[in-house]
């Protein structure tokens, strides 16, 4: 029988995904039972006032352990990570935060006999030579970025802790995540968020990826739903643990622009390619998530058209309220 998840800790909860995940977990598990943590950036008023919040450093196990003990934590969602573009600028930092953060969380999972540890992975696990369309669950993992290297090592480390110690760990390979609450930072797929903000703000956007760069993408509600669904899935039905391909849709910058134009006809896109193109070129166009569908019932709800409509609705309302960039 799987242990119950009662007291949850979220690392990286001031980040793009962690901020919305922590709030959703508070709604589902009770605000007092979900401890949000970040390293440096001030949390939003909503995150700070709706439940416990602490500053920790995931590379320093003592700072995590203090919170684990204080709140009797039995579940960790480990969302803190340095993403792909920042990782290429500072590979040592990326290794330190992503690898030491991960092993610290795993060690605390063991020490406190936790019910569950959830550690996301990424499409960055793949590299040149991988089948680009419908990339299968099982295929060669040879990333060309430090972020990808840490995600492959992280998946292997997690699966090792499942096998060797029987710790209940789960993880999924996130595509680019699009959201309107918290801006992403330091990623290659960040354009797919910026484009909506700039479309609403200025009616134009200069994209750092080429117009035909197709990447796997997902709207935040699907990302949050999938993550919690995997955490709550029946362990005995899982053949995979830390590396589920997780897909919703795939598109290019040109395709997003066409979709935005349906709502903002005067919208214009131009291109100034930078070093992130190289990272994007090493990633798949689309991925096969049949293992997630079969083993824990994954099914996305949002596509490019419905996501675009929803993103623009939220961002326009914020612009009218004078708070587009919170
Ligand atoms: N969004 C991430 C990045 O671009 C991919 O997981 O780095």
| Count of DSSP strands | 14
Shape: globular
- The assigned structural class equals alpha/beta
User: What is the CATH fold-level name of the largest domain?
Assistant: Rossmann fold
Query: Which band does the percent of strand residues land in?
Result: 5-15%
Note the gap between the termini. 43 Å
Order of helices and strands: EHEHEHEHHEEHEEEHEEHEEHEHHH
What proportion of the residues is helical, as a percent range? 40-55%
Q: In this structure, how is the largest beta sheet organized?
A: 6 strands, parallel
- Mean pLDDT across residues: 97
What's the CATH H-level homologous superfamily of the largest domain? NAD(P)-binding Rossmann-like Domain
Give a description of the structure.
The structure is a single chain. The termini are far apart. This protein has 12 helices and 14 strands. With 326 residues, the chain is of the alpha/beta class. The mean pLDDT is 97. The protein folds into 2 domains: 8-176 and 218-245, Rossmann fold; 178-217 and 249-320, Alpha-Beta Complex (UDP-galactose 4-epimerase, domain 1). Helix 7 (191-201) packs across helix 12. The strands form 4 sheets. Strands 3-2-1-4-5-7 form a 6-stranded parallel beta sheet, with helices on both faces. A 3-stranded parallel beta sheet has the order 6-8-12. It has helices at residues 16-29, 45-50, 61-70, 84-89, 91-111, 146-165, 191-201, 220-232, 253-261, 276-281, 290-296, 304-320, and strands spanning 8-11, 34-38, 53-55, 75-78, 116-118, 121-122, 169-170, 172-174, 176-178, 204-207, 215-219, 244-245, 249-251, 268-271. Residues 83-84, 122-124, 147, 174, 176, 187-189 line the site of serine (SER).
């Amino acid at each position: 029988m799987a242990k119950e998840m009662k007291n949850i800790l979220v690392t990286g909860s001031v980040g793009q995904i962690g901020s919305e995940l922590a709030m959703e977990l508070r709604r589902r598990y009770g605000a007092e039972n979900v401890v949000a943590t970040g390293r440096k950036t001030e949390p939003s008023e909503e995150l700070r006032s709706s439940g416990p919040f602490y500053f920790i450093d995931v590379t320093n196990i003592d700072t995590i352990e203090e919170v684990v003990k204080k709140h009797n934590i039995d579940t960790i969602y480990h969302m803190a990570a340095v993403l792909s573009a920042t990782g290429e600028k500072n590979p040592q930092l990326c290794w330190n935060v992503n690898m030491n953060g991960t092993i610290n969380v795993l060690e605390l999972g063991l020490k406190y006999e936790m019910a569950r540890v959830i550690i996301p992975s990424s499409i960055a696990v793949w590299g040149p030579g991988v089948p680009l369309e419908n990339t299968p669950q099982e295929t060669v993992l040879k990333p060309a970025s430090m972020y990808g290297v840490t995600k492959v090592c992280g998946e292997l480390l997690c699966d090792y802790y499942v096998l060797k110690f029987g710790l209940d760990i789960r993880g999924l390979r996130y595509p680019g995540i699009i959201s309107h609450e918290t801006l992403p930072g330091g990623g290659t797929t960040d354009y797919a968020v910026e484009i909506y903000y700039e479309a609403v703000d200025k009616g134009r956007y200069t994209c750092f990826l080429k117009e035909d760069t197709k990447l796997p993408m997902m709207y935040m509600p699907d990302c949050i739903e999938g993550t919690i669904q995997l955490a709550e899935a029946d362990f005995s039905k899982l053949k995979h643990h830390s590396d589920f391909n997780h897909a919703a849709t795939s598109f290019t910058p040109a395709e997003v622009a066409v979709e935005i134009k349906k709502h903002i006809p005067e919208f214009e896109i131009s291109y100034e390619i930078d070093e992130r193109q190289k990272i994007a070129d090493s990633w798949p166009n689309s991925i096969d998530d049949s293992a997630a569908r079969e083993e824990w019932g994954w099914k996305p709800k949002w596509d490019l058209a419905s996501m675009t409509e929803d993103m623009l609705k939220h961002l326009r309302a914020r612009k009218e309220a004078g708070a587009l960039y919170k």
